[in-house]
Amino acid sequence: MADNLMRKLPFTRFAMEMRSGKIIEIDEGFVKMLGYTEEDMKNGLVFKDIVPDIDYEGIITELRETLLIRDMPAMSIIF
């Protein structure tokens, strides 16, 4: 029964520009998990598009304070 309830989530990785939140690189797991495509990314997909129900500005401010100080223009996020 537990086999029917538990499903493996795909591993995914993406990269985004810190200043704009623009998604600049995705993998197959990202496409499978979230449904966004390479075409969506090329058309300007941003971080806010994939997590609209959170305190986006607070997260971006914290990331900027933490990472931009270290001169990191882009970051990878692993789910």
Portion in helices: 40-55%
User: What is the first-to-last residue Cα distance?
Assistant: 26 Å
Instruction: Name the shape in a single word.
Output: globular
> What portion of residues belong to β-strands?
15-25%
Any low-confidence stretches, pLDDT <50, length ≥5? none
**Secondary-structure content class:** alpha+beta
Biggest beta sheet attributes: 3 strands, antiparallel
How do the strands of the widest beta sheet line up side by side? 2-1-3
The total count of strands amounts to 3
Radius of gyration: 15 Å
Provide mean pLDDT, rounded.
Answer: 79
- What is the number of helical segments per DSSP (H or I, 4+ residues)? 5
Identify the quaternary structure here: single chain
Question: From N to C, what is the helix and strand string?
Answer: HEEHHHHE
How are the SSEs placed, and which strands pair?
Blueprint: H1 2-5, E1 13-17, E2 23-26, H2 28-34, H3 38-42, H4 47-50, H5 56-67, E3 74-78
Antiparallel strand pairs: 1-2, 1-3
Describe the structure.
This protein is of the alpha+beta class and 79 residues long. Helices cover 41% and strands 18% of the residues. It contains 5 helices and 3 strands, in the order H-E-E-H-H-H-H-E. It has helices at 2-5, 28-34, 38-42, 47-50, 56-67, and strands spanning 13-17, 23-26, 74-78. Strands 2-1-3 form a 3-stranded antiparallel β-sheet. The two termini are 26 Å apart.
